[in-house]
Fold:
Amino acid sequence: MTEIIRDETGTQRTLGYVLEIGHADGGARCHLDVGEEHANRHGVLHGGIATAILDNAMGATSSLSVDPRGREPFMTITMSTQFLAPALTGKRVTARGRITGGGRSLLFVEGELVDEDDRLIATATGVFKRARRGQDGVA
Amino acid sequence: MTEIIRDETGTQRTLGYVLEIGHADGGARCHLDVGEEHANRHGVLHGGIATAILDNAMGATSSLSVDPRGREPFMTITMSTQFLAPALTGKRVTARGRITGGGRSLLFVEGELVDEDDRLIATATGVFKRARRGQDGVA
Amino acid sequence: MTEIIRDETGTQRTLGYVLEIGHADGGARCHLDVGEEHANRHGVLHGGIATAILDNAMGATSSLSVDPRGREPFMTITMSTQFLAPALTGKRVTARGRITGGGRSLLFVEGELVDEDDRLIATATGVFKRARRGQDGVA
Amino acid sequence: MTEIIRDETGTQRTLGYVLEIGHADGGARCHLDVGEEHANRHGVLHGGIATAILDNAMGATSSLSVDPRGREPFMTITMSTQFLAPALTGKRVTARGRITGGGRSLLFVEGELVDEDDRLIATATGVFKRARRGQDGVA
Structure:
């Protein structure tokens, strides 16, 4: 059964996306209703915000791979995003993560962002690292 | 002489960063005072917001390379970001862009994000494409 | 019907991979029998050679998208590769490309490299640009 | 005093580049005399071979950061390359690495590839992981 997580972090409250976990495929989803407050100069979804929700979906997917509640913290080490098509305001977009490989410490994760018409907006790949308590660096 | 641009886009208003242009090196800057509203689960600057301001600084740098007012629109084609160190809330961070190559249509741009103590937080590389009027795709 | 292309370029002769086109899915394949001559310090397939055959499969896939003979030249603009697992000498590895988006000038392409046991060795994303005659730069 | 390392690995013998260590800046160099055997369909340096020598220079730079002889093994986790300009056959190209951040386990490294006229051919960023004995995966 899926569960919706809202307003967990400052960024989530600022951007207004929701996180959805509990899918059988293990992939977390982030949903965002694209409004003017997410637009860039071209009047479409800002690439940075697209990246933010991809990052969130991919990080939460990393966490779900070791913790069914998705609470185990992972840090983004590197992320590469391809911007395939503009996402229009007024549409809902959804980012989804998928683990492609890795081991105890590092995970390789793919993400894709689609709009409500299932148009592919962006794809991403990232490396995520399991955070250890007391660690303040990323590497 | 440098000039500050505020509140130009929805994303800029939502995230609260300012854009600074007019530096002799041609590189645009984006400044953000990191607050709780920009934090991730670890209580530090969210990687997606770090990416958003890097993207903005790099896109504005692209625009400045052909237009001193920085208004000529460029679209982000692809962007790769490395997260080197966490940026703490309460600190100001600054993203700066630098053109490394390209031609009439595509530009290769580097970015770096530092905090007010000049600690390197993230680096990025991206490809930006000059937008043509009437074009609705990115490629 | 699939077709094998051998020894077309200096790099292909040097590295010894073969290119296979004509698959119904439109994706070109590159096959390499990994030998000591492709090994790195760890005695496994060198990441650079993994990247070379991924690049070739992705570039040829770009070409096939506009020319069934796969002769139309495309240039690699940017490429990001994730190294998931080592590829052992004595194994055959296969890289395959897949178009994810793009338009008349730029294509977004994904690649994956698997070994003969279908183990995922590396994944890649890239942006490819259709080459125009007489152009000597990449952008 | 700098030292030249030749023919250390199968890949090095196949591609014919040399590795140079001992520079005061800590950055390893790889030099390659670009010939027809390194050319792609366009008759210029193959992007995969450009990536291979960038990868080597960056990996050796990682190793030099903990071992002055540059023997400590590091594995490439992810690498992103931007292809700015073609490298012509008959020219010598040089790749150089530079550490930008990291810690005990992971290093963030930048690379650049220039030709003998100091023209920037390609830039790269990568994440490298210190290899532990007995480990057979990459993460």
